[in-house]
User: Fold these one by one.
Assistant:
Number 1:
Amino acid sequence: MHPLATIAARAIERRHDLLTRLHADGTDCYRLLHGIAEGAPGLTLDRYGPLLLAQTFRDPLPGAVIDGLCAAVRDATGLDLEIVHNHRGAPSAAHVADHEPTATALAEHVCREGPVRFVVQARHRGQDPWLFLDLRAGRRAVRGLATGRRVLNLFAYTCGVGVAAAVAGAATVQNVDFAQSALEVGRRNAAANGIAADRFTTLHSDCLPVLRQLAGQPVQRRGRHVPFVRIDAQPFDLIVLDPPRLARSRFGTVDVVRDYPSLWKPCLLALAPGGAVLATNHVPEVAESDWHQVLRKSAEKAGRPLRSLEPIAVDDDFPSFDGRPPLKVVLATV
C-alpha cells in the first residue's frame, strides 16, 4: 500500500465516531483527509455523496496513487465512490501520469447535509468546490435559528447557508454575491430542496454597497458615475457574514485582517432588535481572541453592544496542529 493510502486509512479511522454521527443525521459529505494536519501536506480527500474529490495543492499525484487512495477509502468505509483528482497547485515540471475520471465521476451529483440537499460537480468553471465542508457547523447553527426569520446571506457564493436557512423554515432569505455563476448554482440548490421562489431570492451585486444601503449608510465608491443596485434600508433577524480574506472593488476593500469593522458595523446596524449575526474569519494568523475583541469593541462603537458572542467550533474532520483551525465562526446577538 502506498504511504498516502495508509495515511488516508488512518485518518478515516480517527473519524469513526464523527462519521457515525453524520451518517445518522443523513449527511454524506465530509472531509476524509485533511492532509496538512494529518501527515500529507498538499492533499485533501472529500466525500460529496457518491463522489470522492482528491485535491492536490503542491504536486500532482500519479494515476496509480489516486487509484490506491480510492481503494483505501473503499476498504475503510465500505463505500465505492467515483474519484476525481483536481490539481490546484502550479504545473509540475516532472511527468505525472494523469488520472482519467469516469464520465459518472464528472457528472453532476447531489449530496446531503442533514435535511439539506446540495448540487455538486467535481469540475466546473471555477476551482473551489460548490460546497465548503468546513462551514458545516455554521450551517447547522443557522438551521437551528432560522425558523420564521428574515435572513440576509452576504458573500453567499452558491448560497449554501441561505439554502440551509430556507430548509429550516426561514420566512425569507436574501443571498448576495458578485458572481452570477455562483448564484445560479445557489438557485439550483434551492430548487433541489423545493424552496419556493417567494422565500428565496438572489441579488447579483458587490456586497459592500448592498450592506451599506441596508444599514442606512451612504454608499462609498471610486468615481461619481459608478453604478450600483439601489435598495432600501431594511432590518433582518439573522445575517450571515462570510467574507473573503481580501477583495478590492470600486466600492472599497474587504480586508478581514486590518478592517473587519467596516463589514461588522453595517451588519449590526441592519439587524432588527434581538437579531443575530453568524460571522466568519478564514485567516490563520488572526487569533480568535483578538478577533472577538475587535467584534465587541466595534459593536460598542456602533451603539449596538453584543448580548452574547458564541464561538462555533468546526467539526472534527478539519483538525489542526494546535486545536485552532484557520476557520473561526461566531454567533453574535444584539
Note: The first helix runs from residue 3 to 14.
Number 2:
Amino acid sequence: MATEAVERPAAFRFGQQYKSQLMRSLDTVDLEAVGRAIELLAEARDRNRHIFVCGNGGSASTASHFVCDMVKGASFNRPLRFRIMALTDSLPTLTAYANDVSYDCVFAEQLKNFAQREDVFLAISGSGNSPNLICAMEYANSIGCKTIALTGRDGGKLGPMANLEIRVAEPHMGRIEDGHMIVCHMLCYYFMDHGQAG
C-alpha cells in the first residue's frame, strides 16, 4: 500500500505534464494550412480525383484511421464521396516490394499504378525523413499531384518537398503523433459536420 501511495502522485503529475505539453504542441499547428488542406480535399472530391495517404509505424495507423473516417464518415449517404485509399493497407503489396525490391519504393510503386495528375498525395511522418515517403513525394510531384506533408520537429526533408506542409513543431514523437491524429480529425470532421459544403 505504501508503494502505491507514492507512485500515484508521480503518475498523476506525468499525465498533467503530458497534457500541458500536448496543448503547447497543438499551438504550433498552422490552422491556415489546415484550411488549405480542407480546400484541396474538397476540390479532389468535387472533381472526382483520387487521394492517397501513407506513413510508417504509428503514422501508418493514422493514415488508415484517416482514410476510414473519410470513406465512411465523410462519404456515407452523401451524393459526393471521397475516392481515397491508404497505401499502407495492402500488406501483401507492401511486403512483396519490401522483400523483392526495396522498402524505399513501397509507396511510390503503388502510386505508379494508381496516381494521376491533379490527384492528392498526403504523406505523414513525424521525422520527415523516411526514405519511402520522400521517394513517394518525389514521384507524386513529378506527375503533377497536389502534395501535402503532415510532419513534426523541423519538417525534415519531406516538409519542403510538399506543396503544403502541416507541421507539429514538437520533438516528442508521441505528441507529434497525437497532433497528427487531431489534424486528421480536423480535416475529416469538417466534412462530417458540414456535409457537402465545400
Note: The chain has a mean pLDDT of 95.
